[in-house]
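Predict the structure of Pantothenate transporter.
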Amino acid sequence: MLDQKTKLTAVSAPVVDDPNSGLHYARRGSITNDELSNEQIEGYDAERMRARTLLTAEEEKKLLRKVDWHLMTLCSVMFLLKNIDADNVSNARIMNKGTKSNIMTQLGMSANEYNLVTTMYYIPYIIAEAPSNLLLKRLLPSRWQSRIMITWGIALACHAAVKNKEGLSRLACFQASYYKCATGIDRTRCQYACCISVIDILGNLSGIFSGILAFAFSHLDGAHGLSGWQWLFLVEAIVTIVFGISLIWILPDFPPQAKWLTEKEKAFIQARLPGNAPQSSELNFRWREIVDALKDVRLWLFTLIWALFTIGTSGVRFYQPTVIANLGFTDIASAQLLNLPISIFSIIVIGVTGAFADNGRLPRPLYPLSFLCVILICYGVLYAYPNTGGVFAATVIGNGVTSAWYPMMWPWRVQTTSKATGSAFSIGFVNSYGQIGGAIGPHLFRSQYAPHYGISFGIAMGFVSACILATSLTWYLTRKTERDTRKLKVARVKAQNRGETVLDDVVDKDLKKARSSDKSAETRA
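Done. Here is the predicted structure for Pantothenate transporter.
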């Protein structure tokens, strides 16, 4: 609910109805009058719409830059640390390979046993993600996110003390789950691909940092009685824990709690939030929204897309350092640095496609579908294994495009959710159970398929092909909401240039007929 203490000192201004687009506009820096109703604008809320006109276009730009600086930076650093920590599993596999201090040699593990450990890392993540999202309605995001970072860091530090494969397996089972920060202010930005792209760009810097760190710590092997992989886990754990503790004080929760926002800015930010964003005033669980989400076929389709994609690509990403090491370019330690081109290419692709996707000119599903086709072609090259250079090029392009797939999918997924509890549950559900590929994918690359893993890449191609079909079907079912979202995005940009704001929000019409039937049945009952 908007802060009642906000002083609305602007003058009243009429609302302009555009008959061509069916949208309603109001002059920025003014207050809309009360002549509109929910019958004229579906989902209209007079208080929210008045707050949307409080700031001029220039003031809004300054406000969003302020939000980016205070919040998006923190979310990006959290994502970066999470990715660096997660990359340790694959990087440690080849650190000091061929010596007694290699993690697999030191712990007495076979390649297939190491794959099983990677599966165990995903079990708590899959189970805990959806409940964790719902707990944000009870606990402040800063406290809960800090808890996640600290417990993740502690579990990571414990890796350095592991003495055998049983200890590593048990520790993997208790590895804390992690998910992207989704505070109330963050949701004002996550509806835009370019802003998700910023987080993913910084997150994908992990490929650069983790490769450099693995290279550096491999040369610390034996220092103070610790192997290189133990130094890797320990140092990165300490950084994660320290940053997690700091989040208690530096991560803002909801707009009303942000001390660096004025009352007018707080009201504007909350009015700008989509209807399915978390609100500080809404702390109660609404189980009906969870039931409705589970009855929504789109929830299961997006979960299927995520599962097929992660199964088809996570194994390849996990084995990326190993594949590069087996190409014979250089020694094992220097092979870590050959991961850098992949990360750099990923950052470029994410940045460019994020900027293009945000203009709303092309349907959003076209981007992930295009990426899937590129991945399929690259996997075909990896399956054929023509030569060393071709394999490395396919690895760079395939894994780079794989990283860019996520920031293109999330805005599309978010725009099909509804209401706060239902949205939190749906996003967590898809992101957790869709990550089943992280548990299954590495097992496609079993030791008997080495060194070229032709069978493994062939199976991965099958899952990517199925993902293309599932994405196409989902696009068909969500075409109305996706089209309206693009239409509204373009209208808002044009309105901003005219010094106006759009009062309409996107109304979910994909399953409108089914919902009308359900309501009629309830009425008759």
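The first helix runs from residue 46 to 52.
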